[in-house]
User: Which sequence fits this backbone?
């Protein structure tokens, strides 16, 4: 099994729908992150969590929310999806030292 | 604040030629630096990283990078390109402390390898 598992792998949804992307990890890391990847923009940080009770906005948090249900689970929600949220989304974890990051395989989201 | 700039969104080389992908960073503290590769329709794979110690870092698939503090650079090189190196490459920076540790990415460089 993968260290960081994202579900679903692919999703097509309609404008205005609520959607949740899920991430679970077996690394035992406290720190977890959500990124989105767009062509020419690299990966941009949406939200991050340094422990279960610590949630922080990243550089592009508008239109997104997160939930840290447990050390191992970090979910990203789009309350009302819009087409410009079409992107590849990655979940990641890191060790406390910030020297090792583990990424999931990504969720390709299309909003039509 | 930290930021990363990758010079050149597209780089094209011939098979067997030197690969040089440029990365400059800004950081108020000594950085941790990373290079990732993303093959088409795949996730991210760590090529190499610099945290402390030797400034010339060797990674997988024959890649290496050198941390140059005076130039705030962490350029990625490979002496001889292979067709299989065609991919997108991302430079990233982080630093551990109670208030940072976020991994910040550059915009990415697409490497094309011509036969």
Assistant:
């Amino acid at each position: 099994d993968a260290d960081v598992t994202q579900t679903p792998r692919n999703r097509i949804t309609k404008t205005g729908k609520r959607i949740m992307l899920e991430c679970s990890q077996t690394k035992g890391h406290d720190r977890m992150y959500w990124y989105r990847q767009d062509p020419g923009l690299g990966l941009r940080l949406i939200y991050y969590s340094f422990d279960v009770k610590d949630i922080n906005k990243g550089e592009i948090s508008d239109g997104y929310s997160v939930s840290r249900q447990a050390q191992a689970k970090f979910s990203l929600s789009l309350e009302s999806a819009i087409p410009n949220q079409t992107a590849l989304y990655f979940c990641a974890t890191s060790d406390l030292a910030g020297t090792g990051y583990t990424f999931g395989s990504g969720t390709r989201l299309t909003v039509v | 604040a930290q930021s990363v700039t990758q010079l050149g969104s597209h780089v094209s080389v011939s098979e067997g030629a030197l690969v040089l992908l440029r990365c400059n960073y800004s950081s108020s503290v000594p950085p941790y630096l990373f290079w990732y590769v993303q093959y088409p329709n795949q996730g991210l794979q760590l090529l190499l990283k610099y945290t402390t110690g030797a400034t010339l870092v060797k990674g997988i698939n024959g890649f290496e990078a050198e941390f140059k503090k005076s130039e705030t650079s962490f350029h990625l090189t490979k002496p001889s390109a292979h067709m299989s190196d065609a991919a997108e490459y991302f430079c990233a920076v982080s630093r551990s402390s109670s208030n940072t540790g976020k991994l910040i990415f550059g915009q990415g460089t697409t490497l094309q390898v011509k036969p």
Summary: The first strand of chain B starts at residue 3 and ends at 7.
